[in-house]
Amino acid sequence: MDTKKIPYKIYLNEEEMPQFWYNMRADMKNKPAPLLNPGTLKPCTAEELEHVFCRELVKQELNETDRYIPIPQEILDFYKMYRPSPLTRAYCLEKKLGTPAKIYYKFEGNNTSGSHKLNSAIAQAFYAKEQGLKGVTTETGAGQWGTAMSMACAYLGLDCRVYQVRCSYEQKPHRREVIRTYGAQAIPSPSMETEIGRKINAEYPGCTGSLGCAISEAVEYATKHDGYRYVLGSVLSQVLLHQSIIGMEAKAAMDKYGIKPDVIIGCAGGGSNLGGLISPFMGEKLRGEKDYQFIAIEPASCPSLTRGVFAYDFCDTGEVCPMQKMYTLGSQFMPSANHAGGLRYHGMSAIVSQLYHDGYIEARSVGQTEVFKAAELFCRSEGTLPAPESSHAIKVAIDEALKCKETGEEKTILFGLTGTGYFDMKAYEAFNNGTMSDYIPTDEEIKKATDLIPRFPGNEF
Amino acid sequence: MDTKKIPYKIYLNEEEMPQFWYNMRADMKNKPAPLLNPGTLKPCTAEELEHVFCRELVKQELNETDRYIPIPQEILDFYKMYRPSPLTRAYCLEKKLGTPAKIYYKFEGNNTSGSHKLNSAIAQAFYAKEQGLKGVTTETGAGQWGTAMSMACAYLGLDCRVYQVRCSYEQKPHRREVIRTYGAQAIPSPSMETEIGRKINAEYPGCTGSLGCAISEAVEYATKHDGYRYVLGSVLSQVLLHQSIIGMEAKAAMDKYGIKPDVIIGCAGGGSNLGGLISPFMGEKLRGEKDYQFIAIEPASCPSLTRGVFAYDFCDTGEVCPMQKMYTLGSQFMPSANHAGGLRYHGMSAIVSQLYHDGYIEARSVGQTEVFKAAELFCRSEGTLPAPESSHAIKVAIDEALKCKETGEEKTILFGLTGTGYFDMKAYEAFNNGTMSDYIPTDEEIKKATDLIPRFPGNEF
Q1: CB atoms < 10 A from the CB of B150, how many?
Q2: Helical H runs in B21-103?
Q3: Which keywords belong to this entry (chains A, B) (predicted)?
Q4: Residue B11's pLDDT is what?
Q5: pLDDT, position A4
Q6: Alpha carbon of A149: minimum distance to chain B alpha carbons (Å)
Q7: Structural domains in chain A?
C-alpha cells in the first residue's frame, strides 16, 4: 500500500482534524458492567454521580449508545494549540534494528504537561466551566495529570486544587512548580484542610501520604464545597472517550497514506492511553470490518491484566469512589517502587478490562530494566527521550519488530508514545548507574491483596 | 494579506522544507572582522583553526561569499526527525492581551534537547564524522548544548566528551543524566584529565568550576588527542549559518500564507538563535528588498550589546580560543546569578555585533522578574512553559503588542521561542515564591571588566 512516500512525521491539516470522540461502548456487544454504589451495591444513578463529577461528564460516563460525540468548539480550539500530535515513522529505529517491519508511533508529549493527559484535562475543565463551577479538585502522584489539569484550568480561568502525595510534593519539586506556575494550588496530602487529612495526620504524624489518601481528600473537598467537582485522569470511561482523539488522529493520518497497522501497542496503567489509541481501530474490529492485533503492556511490578482478577473492586485505596468491575490486584495492593509512576495502579479501565476479557486485546507484562534498555535504544536512534510509562510500549514494539526480522514479515506496527521523560531523570540515573531494581510480586502477595476484594452476590472471582 | 485563514500552527511539508542554509555574510557590506590568533594578533589561518575545529566547519567559518550552502542529505534526514518546528499563531495570547497585533512564534523546543541547539549540533557532529574523527569535545553550562551535542553524537555513533561545570554537574543532575542517557560522557570540570584541570584543582582544591575552565579543558583534550576536535554551540559564524534553518522555515511558512512580519524579536546570549531566526529576513533588508524591524533582547544582568564595547576580545575566560571582534563586557566579566543560563555570555556573535553596529538591529535589555512575569502569562495562555532565555523575547513581544493596543496598529510580530523550561523549575520556584532577584551591574563593574580587554593597535575602543 506504500504508494506515496511516507514522511517521517504525518501531520493533519486543521480541516482533517477529527471533530468527534469515538465511544467504543456503542460497538461492544458485552458492555462494561455499571459502576456500583459501594454502600448499596446497586448501580450508581446519575444523581449520585453528580455530587462528585460534573453533570455532562456523568452523562458521558453513562453513555453506552452514542457512537460519536461531537467535540465542543472550545475544546477543538484548545486542541489546536498542541494537536494534531505527530504520527512518526521510526525510520531510524527500524534501521538500527535491521527489521523489515514498519514502525509508527503517535507522540503525545509535545505539550508542556508532557503527556496525553491534557486531552482529557481540557475536556473535563471545559464541562466544569460550562456548568458554572468555580473550580475542580484532583490528586496527582507522578504529576502528569496534575500538570495537565492545572494547564487546562489556567486556560479557562478555573480554580484548580491538586492534592499531591506529600512525598512526591517534597521530593519531586519540579512537577509541583509547574503546577504552581500554571496558577493551580498544589497541596501536600495528607493536608489539614479535610477531615480525612486531619484524621490521618493525627493518627500517623509525619505521614508521607498515598494516592488513595489524596483521592479521598480531593473528593471530600469537592463534595463539601459549593461550586467544586472532582476530576480523574484515567480509568473512567469518559476519559477513554476524550482520549479517543489519539486514535482518531492516528487513523486519519494512516488512512491518508493508505497504511493499515497490523499490531497496535499501548502501555496500560489505568488504560486511558491504550483505550484512546486503539479506539477507532477497535471499532472496526468490533463491527467485524477489519482485524488488528492489540497488545496492552503493563509493568511486571503491577500486572493487573496479566495476574489480576476480573471483579468489582474499589477504584481508590480510600474506598470513597464508586466500585467498578475490572481487572484488579485489589485496592490494597501496594506495587513496589517502580519508576513508571503512571502505571502503578491496581485496577484498569472497565472498557479495557471487558475487551481483554472478551479476547479482543492481548496483554503482556515487562520488567523495568528491559524497559529502560528499550528507552535508551529509542532515544539514541529517534531522538526523543521517552517517559518510563511510554517505554513499556517501546519495549514490545521492538520485540515485535525483531520477530519480523527473524520471520521476514513486513508487519506495520503502531505504538503510543505517551510522553517525555524530562521529569523522570532520577529513574534514568538509576538505570545509567546500573542500580535499577526489578521486583516482581509473588503469587502470595497478589493473593493476599486480591483476597481483600469484597465478595458479594454477583462478585464471584 | 490575510486572505487564507491562518491556522494555529503552520507546518511545512517535507517538500517545502529548506534545502539550504543562508549565509548572511554574503549580503553584508561590512563583513565581520576576522578571527585573530591571540599569540600573533594576526588573522587565524584555516590551518591554525583546523587544529581545534573540523575542516569543513573551518571552511564555513571563513566563508563570506557563498550566499546559500546546501544542507547535506544526512543532516536533512536528521532534521526530519524533529523539524519543521511549528510556526505558531499566538491567538490565545493575543486575546488575553486584547491587542490588534498578530503574534507568531517559531517554537524550537519540540525535541528532547529542549532547544534550538540541536540544529547546529547535528551539523557539527556530521562534519566530524565525515572527517573520520573518533569524537568531539565540548563544554556545557546550563546544559542545553551538551544535551544537543550528545543526542547528535548518539545518532552518528561518535564519542562525545562534555565538560560540565562542576557545580552544574552536581546541582543539576537532570541534564547530566540526559547527557549520559544519550551515551555521552559528562565530565565534571575542572577534571584531573587535562593539564589545565589538574592545575586548577591543585591551586583551588574543591573548585566548583567555570565555563571558561570547561572550554579550556575541552579544547586541550581535543588538541592533544588524535581523532578529536572541539565544537561550540554559539557565537561562531558557522553556528549562525546552521541556525539559519529557523529563519528559513519561518519565512517559508509565512510566505505560504502571505504574511510579512513587521517586527522580529529574538533573545541573544551568544547570538545563535537571534542570528538564525532573522537570517533570511535580514538578507532581504541587506539587499534593500524589504524592511523589517529587528530587536535583540538580552538580560539586564549581562548586557553586552546595550552596555558593552565593540572590540576584539577573547571568546572564553580561559583565553585559549581565537579573539573575535564583537560587543563584549570583557571576558573576565562575571554576570550575577541569572537563571537564564544560556544568556550569561560576556560577548556576542561577530555577525550580530556587526549588524548591530551598522544599525540593522536594535537591542534592549530586560530584568529577570519582568521576564518571568511574561513567561507566566505566556504559559497560562499558550500552554507551553518557556525557557527563561526564550522568555526574554516573549517579554518584548508582549510589550510591542501592548503598544499596538494603544496605537491601534495591527503589526505582525514574530519572535523566537527557543526552548522549554522543563529543566528550569528551580528558577520558576524562586519566581513563584517571590524570591527572585534582579541584579543590574553598575557602570563601575562594567568599566572594570571592559578595562581588562587587551588593547593593541587596531583595537581602540
Answers
A1: 29
A2: 46-50, 55-62, 73-82, 91-97
A3: Amino-acid biosynthesis, Aromatic amino acid biosynthesis, Lyase, Pyridoxal phosphate, Tryptophan biosynthesis
A4: 87
A5: 60
A6: 11
A7: 9-35+83-113+246-432 (3.40.50.1100), 134-226 (3.40.50.1100)
Concatenated DSSP letters of B338-376: -S-GGG--SS--HHHHHHHHTTS-EEEEE-HHHHHHHHH
User: What SS3 state is found at B162?
Assistant: strand
pLDDT at A193: 93
Q: What is the pLDDT of residue A437?
A: 87
Interatomic CA distance for residues B160 and B180, integer angstroms:
10
Contact (Cβ atoms closer than 8 angstroms) between residue A6 and residue A89:
yes
Edge-to-edge strands, sheet with B293-299: B9-10, B87-89, B102-107, B412-417, B263-267, B293-299, B362-366
- Inter-axis angle of helices A173-181 and B425-432, nearest 10: 50
Closest-CA residue of B relative to A96 is: B155
Would you call A425 and B173 a contact, using CB atoms and an 8 Å cutoff? yes
Consecutive H or E run containing A293: strand A293-299
CA distance B47 to chain A (A): 34
What is the number of helices (H) and of strands (E) in chain B? 18, 15
Amino acid identity of residue A287, one-letter, is: R
How many angstroms separate the CA atoms of B314 and B321, rounded? 7
Predicted confidence (pLDDT) per residue in A80-110, tens digit: 889 999 999 999 999 999 999 999 999 999 8
Residue type, A150: S
Report chain B's mean pLDDT, rounded to a whole number.
94
Our CA-based measurement puts residue B310 at a distance from the nearest CA of chain A, in whole angstroms, of 39
Nearest to A181 among B155, B173, B432 (CB): B432
Q: What 3-state DSSP class applies to B285?
A: helix
Convert the pLDDT of each residue in A254-288 to its tens digit.
999 999 999 999 999 999 999 999 999 999 999 99
Q: Of A114, A154, A383, which is closest to B111 when you measure between CB atoms?
A: A383
Which residues on chain A place their C-beta less than 8 Å from a C-beta of chain B?
7-9, 11, 13-14, 80-82, 88, 92, 110-112, 114, 151, 154-155, 173-174, 177-178, 180-183, 376, 379-385, 420, 422-423, 425-426, 428-429, 431-432
Find out whether B365 and B306 touch, Cβ atoms under 8 Å. yes
Q: Is the pLDDT of residue B383 over 50?
A: yes
Q: Is the dihedral of CA A80, A84, A85, A91 positive or negative?
A: negative
Helix axes A425-432 and B173-181, enclosed angle (nearest 10): 50
**Gap from A179 CA to chain B (nearest CA, Å):** 10
pLDDT in tens, A160-171: 999 998 888 887
Residue among B390, B378, B376 nearest B420 (CA) = B390
> In this structure, how many other beta carbons lie within 10 angstroms of the beta carbon of residue B456?
10
CB–CB contact A177 B432 (8 Å) = yes
Amino acid at B47: E
Taking alpha carbons only, the member of A134, A321, A128 closest to residue A226 is A134
pTM for the full model? Answer: 0.94
What gap in Å lies between CA B213 and CA B203, rounded to an integer? 13
Q: From CA A64, how far away is CA A25, in angstroms rounded?
A: 5
Question: What is the spatial distance between Cα A415 and Cα A390, in angstroms, rounded to a whole number?
Answer: 9
DSSP state of A342: G
**What's the half-sphere exposure (Cβ side, CA atoms, 13 Å) at B178?**
32
Interface with B, mutate which of A91, A151, A174 (most B CBs under 10 A): A174
Q: What is the ipTM of this complex?
A: 0.92
From chain B, pick out residues whose CB is under 8 angstroms from the CB of A80: 7-9
| Percent of chain A residues past pLDDT 90, beyond the cut | 83
Pairing of strands B68-70, A412-417: unpaired
By CA distance, what is A182's nearest residue in B?
Answer: B380
Report CA-CA distances (Å) from A48 to A36, A228, A361, A444, B390: 10, 15, 32, 37, 48
Shortest distance between the Cα of B120 and any Cα of chain A, in A, equals: 15
Three cell numbers written together for A442: 509473588
